Model the fold of this input.
Amino acid sequence: MSQQSSPCVPGLFTEEGGARVLGNRCVTCNTPYFPKASACHNPRCTESKMEDAAFGGKGVIWSYSVADFPPPPPHKFDKPFKPYVIGVIDMENGLRIVGQLVDPLEKVQVGAKVELVIAPVYHEDDKAYTSWKFKLV
Amino acid sequence: MQEVAVLGVGVHRFGKTGDDIVGTKSVTQLCRHAVDMALKDAGVSWSQIGAVTAASSRFSGGKGWGLNGNDVVEDMGSTGIPVYNMSAGCAAGGNAFNVGYSMVAGGIYDMVLVVGGEVMPKGMIQTSGLEDPNDPEFLRQRCVGMPGPSFWSTLARRRMFDYGTTEEQYAKVVVKARKISVHNPFARFQKEVSLAEVLASPYVSNPLRLFEICPVSNGAAAVVICSKEKARQFSANPVMVATSAVATVDFSDALPRGLSGPVPAGPSFHTESKAVVLKAFEQAGIGPKDVSFTELQDNCCFYELAYPEEWGLCAPGEAERLLDAGEYAPTGRMPINPSGGFVSFGEATTAMGVWQIAELTWQLRGQSGGRQVPGAKVGLCQTNGLGGNATAAILKR
Done:
C-alpha cells in the first residue's frame, strides 16, 4: 500500500521520532495540555509558564465506550460504518486522553496496557486521513 | 434573607414533535400552558408577577438570542417587568430558579415567575457544527468521533469495573423508572417496559442501550415563587424553598469532557454535581438522611446509581443492592426520581430544572397520586449542563 496519508487536522500530532500528540505543559505546576493551551488553567498554579511538549508512549485504559452508530458531522468515517471502540487512556506522561482504539471490542478491557499510534480514521480521494489512536500492547 | 415559598406550579406534558401530545405547538404555546397552570395553581394573576427569570434555549424561541423570557412576557402581555434570561446548557432551568429564588430571598421582588420550555430538534444533540480547529469539540468529533452518549457509556463502563455493575442492573434502573411513569400524567412515556425489552433494545453506545438513554423532548414548566409573608395571603401552608444552589466544575474534574486533561490523583466524578448538592445541604442545614426523595438528572441509567453514592445518600457501591431491594421506589427508603425521571420524560433540556421544582412541590403537597412518596417532607433536586454548570434545590414542607 503506497497510499498517501495526511493528518485529519494538521499540527496536532507527529510520527517523527515516534507517534506523539503535540501539546504543552506548565513548568510551574506540571499540568499537561493537549491541544496546546495558551496559558495554564490550573487555578492553584502560581504562575503560568508554558513549554511545548509532545506526548506519546504507553498508558492504561481508564474506561472505554463504543460508537455503535456513526457520530454526526463533523465526524468523517469510511462506509459502510463499522462500530469502533473509544478509549479514555491514562498515559504514563500524565495525560488522560480520549482516542479510538484500533483493536476490536472483544479484546478491550479496563486496565489493559496500550500505546499511542497514528492510524487512518477515514479515506477520501484515495488518501488516508490519520489521527492519534491507541493499540493494545 | 426572606424565606421563599412555592405558590404555584405548572407543566405541559412532554412529547415529541408531531405526536398527539405536543403536535406542532411552538415553545411559546407550551410555555403559555405551563404559565397559565402555574398562575391558576398559585391563585394569582399575570399582573401580580414582579419579574420573570427564564431558561435560555439554544434550540427554540428566544428570537435566536436566548430571549425566551421575553417571548413569554410578550405572549402573556407586556407589563414592563424585568426579565432575566439565564443560559447554562441543560442546567438553565435550575439556574433560572436560583436567580428567581435569590432575588425573592434578597427582597428585590415579592413575586417571581420562573419558566423554561423547549421544542427540541430530532435526534442526538448536535455540536456547534463549526469546522474550526481551535474548537475542541470539532477536534473531538473529527479526530476521535465521540458521539454524545459515549461520554455516558464511558462512565457506565468504568462503574462496571469499579463495582461489578452488570448490564442487567443498568436495565433494572429503567424498568423501575418506567414502572413509576404509568402514574405520571405529565410523562411522555407512560408505559411499563420489561427487563427483556430493555435488554433487547439496541446499543447506542455499548454498554448503554436505546431504552437506557433519555431522548430529547418538547415540554415546558413554570413556577410562581414569593416571599413567605406574601404567601400567607394565598396559602396557609405552602411548600417552602429550603435552599437553592449553583456550582460549576472544578479544575480537578477528570471526566472525559474534552480531548484530554491531567490524570487525577483520586476518583473521577462530576465535581459540579457533587459540589452543588453538598453546598445545598450546607446552606439548608439539611443532611442526606433528612431527604425524603430525590429528583436527579438521569440522562442515562448510570446516574441513578452513581449520584446517590457521590452525594452521601447511600454508601459507595451500595446503589445496586438498594435498587434490587426496592428502596429506589417511591415507597422505598431512598426514593430516586419518583417522577419517572428523564428516561420517562425525555429531556426538554432547559425546562428540566423548573419541571423538577413542580414535581417536588406536588410530592410535598401529597398530590402525586400513584407515584406519591408517603409522608414526603424534604425533596432534593439536581441538574447539570454543558459548560460544567450544576444546580440543586431543596424544598420542604
